[in-house]
Amino acid sequence: MLGWARALLNMSAWDFSLWDAAEMLLSAANPATGFALEFWSVATLVGAALYVVLPVDLLPDVIPVVGWGDDVVAVRRAAGVISAEMLRYKAFKEQQARELGLGRRD
Questions:
Q1: pTM value?
Q2: CA 29/CA 80 separation, integer angstroms
Q3: Which residues, 6+ apart, have CB-to-CB distance to 55 below 8 Å?
Q4: What are the respective helix, strand and coil percentages of the chain, to the nearest 5?
Q5: Measuring CA to CA, which residue among 22, 31, 35, 3 is closest to residue 79?
Q6: What pLDDT, in 10s, does the model give residues 47-79?
Q7: Measured distance between the N- and C-terminal CA atoms of the chain, rounded to whole angstroms
Q8: How far is residue 22's CA from residue 39's CA, in Å, rounded to a whole number?
Q9: How far is residue 72's CA from residue 50's CA, in Å, rounded to a whole number?
Q10: pLDDT tens track for 1-46
Q11: What is the DSSP string of 16-79?
């Protein structure tokens, strides 16, 4: 029934679970890690959260299905930003591990 929502969010394309994403995002936001989240990524995440929560929408939520469409687009955009930031953070951590000599040895 909600296959269209799952397809729109395309969460199966992520290389990690939502829990992993939340944990990595919190770790990436910690200044002690040396990693900086991009300003526009943070702005997009905050904007999407506010857009979904606040009653002011492009399409009012009282209109069934159509009213939620713009919210789904905002969540999808935020999911894409989270995915990109997590991949960037993962590459950053792998680079740190290589520099410290903690990487795999063949």
A1: 0.65
A2: 17
A3: 61
A4: 70, 0, 30
A5: 22
A6: 998 888 887 777 787 787 888 888 888 888 888
A7: 47
A8: 18
A9: 13
A10: 445 455 445 555 555 666 777 777 788 888 888 888 888 988 998 9
A11: S-HHHHHHHHHHHH-GGGS----HHHHHHHHHHHHHHHSS--SS-TTSTTHHHHHHHHHHHHHH
Two tokens, residue 77: 């955009």
Check if the beta carbon of residue 88 is closer than 8 Å to that of residue 76: no
Which amino acid appears at position 44 of this protein? T
CA distance 69 to 9: 12
Q: Write down the residue that tokens 């890690």 correspond to.
A: 33
Residue 86, amino acid: M
Instruction: Output the six-digit token pair for 99.
Output: 């520099």
Q: Residue 79, class by beta-carbon neighbours within 10 Å (0-12 exposed, 13-18 middle, 19+ buried)?
A: buried
